[in-house]
Amino acid sequence: MNKKNSVFIATSIDGYIADKNGGIDWLHSIPNPNNDDMGYVEFTNDIDALVMGRTTFETVCGFDVDWPYDKPVFVLSNKLKEIPESHKGKAFLVKGTLAEILDQIYKKGLNKLYIDGGTTIRNFLKEDLIDEMVLTVIPILLGGGSPLFSEHPKELKFELIKTKTYLNQVTQSYYNRKR
């Protein structure tokens, strides 16, 4: 089976995924009366598992909702000693290099991975391990915060596959890695 590492994330116009205080309330700044998922369900239907960093995991755990994932979640962390009891069996702590971690996950038959969290995405990009990106741009300038992208050791070329507009204001672009 083909292996694929995908990103599905929202950013501000100026490329931030969280504001200066780590907040993400701005993601809901555009009224969405029909709760359009903007392609998220379709995207997640085509993945086998998620890989996220500790900060993203802790952020999701802090939401006042039931656990939102029905697929295994692999949490990258050097600080976390174990997954909280409330999430055991749903989330799994993994350690090692990204290549070692991917090998562990692939050996479980999980080949289509959703890579989530700023640091995790940046680290995967630094090692050229992202195959596709779905970037949703919310029309707001945050002026600082947590950037989606950082410096890379080399140029990575992506091809724009399609663009969609949601709620007459939110732009979503699909990119595939050109190899």
Can you give a write-up of this model?
The chain has a single domain (4-177), classed as Dihydrofolate Reductase, subunit A (3-Layer(aba) Sandwich). Helix content is 18%, strand content 31%. Strands 5-4-3-6-1-7-10-9 form an eight-stranded mixed sheet. The protein has a two-stranded antiparallel sheet with strand order 2-8. The chain is of the alpha/beta class and 179 residues long. The model has no long low-confidence stretch (mean pLDDT 95). The chain is globular.
SSE inventory with pairings:
Blueprint: E1 4-12, E2 16-18, H1 40-45, E3 49-53, H2 54-62, E4 73-76, E5 91-94, H3 98-106, E6 112-116, H4 118-126, E7 132-138, E8 146-147, E9 158-166, E10 170-177
Parallel strand pairs: 1-6, 1-7, 3-4, 3-6, 4-5
Antiparallel strand pairs: 2-8, 7-10, 9-10
